[in-house]
Design goal:
Blueprint lengths: L4 H13 L13 E6 L3 H17 L6 E7 L3 H4 L7 E5 L1 H6 L1 H14 L3 E3 L7 H11 L3 E5 L9 H7 L5 E3 L8 H11 L26 E5 L11 H15 L2 E4 L6 H7 L7 E3 L6 H9 L3 E5 L2 H8 L4 E4 L23 E3 L23 H4 L3 H13 L1
Parallel strand pairs: 1-2, 1-4, 2-3, 4-5, 5-6, 7-8, 7-10, 8-9, 10-11, 11-12
Helix pairs in contact: 1-5, 1-6, 2-8, 2-12, 9-10, 9-14
């Protein structure tokens, strides 16, 4: 494969950083770097496995630093286990040479003795290159699977940058199980996985209704968004059945979706899109009676704060992130899935059907309002 100019520059830059002397520990404790740069939902699913890392590397004995995605690092800062959290902007790190140099130089000079990259799907220009530049005596990662972001030549080269590479089951095994297997292989064979839990309370300075439900109609890609008009019909039915107020949540990007769902006089809805950062969204969901969402971080947040959640799920990654699997006998409120099984499931969102621009894929669009309502009604009555 021919490298583009941008990638070539970064490889040269990373190599030059190897000439920079590594820093030394000032506290006497060994320094441990955890590298976790994926999305909000991935981090939330990993919170359960973090319990295992805390047992293996207690903060009394190690100085633990987390290098995390800027999208969720403020939540990680609430965790007292980490001595520090380094936020990283993924796009800037990948394309801005000065920003990349600053991040890698900081890691190099900190002088970490151990680096752990627990991400199942490795990324060459992110965690792999960070592991290389760190110069840590011990570096632990996963063998990884080839995909569009991790090519065969990258895998062969970067495998040499790890001292320990773990073989995690391939396929669509649920992420909680994969994360637990990682913990078992690095030294805690008795580790039992359960529903991740957010234990930190975040107060929000706003008035919440006494009883409300949350609609989260957005998704990272329009193909995964259940149609707005169907969310609107579901909102009306929930309100007619319960009397609860509906709150539409999401980023500014979901403003147009909120406007489509909002219907004057049909039901009482409040548009909160663009008004909640991650911490406020967690608190909003934590005090709700029900969450209805696409396959997004909102579903994982609801599960982590033990709130009933209905998740509209397509087949792209079916089985990996939903449905939840746990080894905990007390199930509590695990996400309730609504899906329409098709032979093409586990397509990695490479849909084999012709798609109209900004329209959902068939396995999402064909999920009926009645199918979703059946699940909601069962939950409300229970």
């Amino acid at each position: 494969m021919i490298l583009n100019l941008n990638s070539f520059i970064f490889i040269i830059l990373d190599s030059l950083l190897l000439l920079v002397p590594r820093g030394r520990s000032e506290t006497g404790k060994p320094k441990l770097l955890l590298v976790r740069l994926d999305m909000i939902g991935d981090y939330l699913l990993w919170l359960d496995a973090l319990r295992g890392i805390e047992k293996l590397y207690p903060s009394e004995d190690y100085q633990v630093v987390l290098l995390g995605n800027v999208a969720w690092y403020k939540l990680a800062e609430k965790n007292n286990y980490f001595s520090e959290v380094y936020p990283l902007k993924r796009s800037k790190f990948r394309f801005n040479v000065f920003y990349r140099f600053w991040i890698l130089y900081r890691i190099r000079r900190t002088g970490f003795q151990i680096v752990i990259s627990p991400v199942i799907s490795r990324e060459f220009y992110f965690a792999d290159c960070i592991v290389r530049v760190s110069g840590a005596a011990r570096s632990i990662g996963v063998v990884g699977e080839l995909n569009n972001n991790f090519l065969s030549w990258q895998k062969r080269w970067s495998n040499h940058w790890y001292t320990d590479l773990l073989q995690i089951n391939k396929g669509s095994n649920m992420e909680l199980l994969r994360n637990a297997e990682f913990i078992r292989q690095i030294g805690l064979p008795e580790f039992s996985f359960k529903r991740p839990v957010i234990e930190h309370s975040i107060e929000i300075n706003c008035q919440l209704p006494a009883d409300y439900f949350v609609l989260f109609p957005g998704a990272g890609w329009p193909g995964r968004q259940w149609p707005a008009e169907k969310f609107q019909k579901i909102a009306l039915r929930v309100q007619q059945e319960t009397g609860w107020i509906g709150i539409i949540a999401g980023s500014y990007k979901e403003k147009s979706l909120a406007q489509k769902i909002y219907c004057e006089g049909a039901c009482v809805l409040e548009d909160w899109t663009g008004q909640t950062d991650l911490l406020k969204l967690i608190e909003l969901i934590k005090h709700s009676n029900l969450v209805i969402t696409n396959e997004t971080s909102a579903a994982h947040i609801a599960a982590a704060v033990n709130i009933p959640v209905i998740v509209i799920v397509g087949g792209g990654h079916y089985g990996r992130f939903f449905p939840y699997q746990t080894e905990n006998e007390k199930q509590e409120y695990l996400p309730i899935l609504v899906s329409l099984p098709m032979p093409c499931f586990n397509c990695n969102w490479n849909c084999c059907y012709p798609l109209m621009p900004r329209c959902p894929v068939p396995c999402i669009e064909n999920i009926s309002v009645e199918l979703v309502w059946e699940k909601i009604l069962e939950l409300i009555k229970r």
